[in-house]
Design a protein that fits this description.
The protein has 56 residues and is mostly beta strands. The protein has a single domain, classed as Single Sheet (N-terminal domain of TfIIb), CATH 2.20.25. A five-stranded antiparallel sheet has the order 1-2-3-4-5, with no helix packed on it. The protein starts with a strand and ends with a strand. 9% of the residues are buried.
């Protein structure tokens, strides 16, 4: 998995590049934390599922 991906950032209001800042394996799968390059907005994803995105 790359260290940078593009996601929709709700604070910026458009697609932005996010950096992967943490990752760990859980019984549910891989949990990754991402930060927006522009505004530092954070999100958490489990198994790459956008439905599991949680604002941090």
């Amino acid at each position: 998995m790359s260290l940078e991906q593009t996601f929709y950032c709700p604070q910026c209001g458009e697609d932005r590049d996010f950096w992967r800042v943490a990752a760990m394996t859980l019984h549910l799968g891989e949990k990754t934390k991402w930060r927006c390059n522009e505004c530092d907005h954070g999100l958490t994803r489990i198994n790459g599922d956008s439905g599991a995105a949680i604002e941090a």
